[in-house]
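Slide 14.
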Amino acid sequence: MALALPKGNAIIGQSGGPTAVINESLVGAVEALREFKLVKKIYGMRHGVNGLVKGSIVDLGKLPAARLARVAKSPAAALGSSRDKPDPEYCARIVEACTKHSIRYLFYIGGNDSSDTCRIVNEIANAGGKDELRCFHIPKTVDNDLVENDHTPGFPSAARFIATAFMADSLDNASLPGVKINVVMGRHAGFLTAASALARGEGKNATDRGPHLIYVPEVPLNSKRFLAEVEAVYSRLGRCQVAVSEGVQDEQGRPIATTLVEGLDTDAHGNVQLSGVGALGDALADLVKKHILVNGKPVRVRADTFGYLQRCWPDASPIDAKEARAAAKFAVGLAKKGERSGSVAIERKPGKAYSAGFKRVELSAVAGKTRHMPANFLDGTSNVSRAFLDYVRPLVGRLPVMETI
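Slide 15: predicted structure.
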């Protein structure tokens, strides 16, 4: 820790996929920085570090409280986001921009790539024992795949959307029976897809309600087994609702989408584009049509890709909104205490009733790492366990009650 805290300006940025509560974190940081007397101005980056290096910044300190309150309750990134993954040269330009605008405190809201940006920028700015800039990562991702965290802001709200969407879609599937395949976000981790299990509710008939099959990246998907499992459910119920992660893989660790579909685009990071395209759902639907027949005819099958709606649906989990704002305030608190850098992590406290707190972890502990669903959250090849349901249920808030005749 430094003996004396530096005086200067602060800047906040948003990065990666927006969420329903990312603006809660933005407003939480602004509110806390207004109480930090060593900070003169509070800036916001337009479209993340891309805007910062281009000089596209806004004075957040001038925004009235009423407007900030509305921003906090609005989904998506109010400042604009960025998919840039800066290398050391890019990060050096970020440091130059911070020096130009007398920025001594940088707060970046995002996932593990954002934490890595903070790490590199912090190392460059403070090389040789300098105290030029202090960098803090505020967690965010609907994938829930940040290590060191019990869960991540953005995930509970997206999980709430998934649960309610599957509840309604299951009733639709029962109204006009067939096979329904829903593709959910999650490139490497299956937490969000697994949250669809909440749609079943409780009670003796829960197993008859969808989703009947859940496929996540942590469990390899075998096409023959997939068809056998779908056919078994269909034979028993006359219908089958399937939840499948966009990043589900085969036994060789290859995304199923790349084995069934040719010519998929790649993003700026070199990853095959999975979100927002219907290729995986269509391919699985075609597989079912070709191999599952009733009286010599293909079963009725439809596929939906939930896409970007799931990450920014304006029905945030109350706990998620509260924790997203509190995590940002905790990050500012770290700066006030004299920490030079760090990432904020949520830790769940023991006990029957849900409660959580925050802790500081090293940027290097989070940067470039991916958290996966633990084995005790999985149940066989196409289901999740009671342990997962107990884990996720407190996070999403009270779900609607739906009924049929």
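Speaker note: The mean pLDDT is 93.
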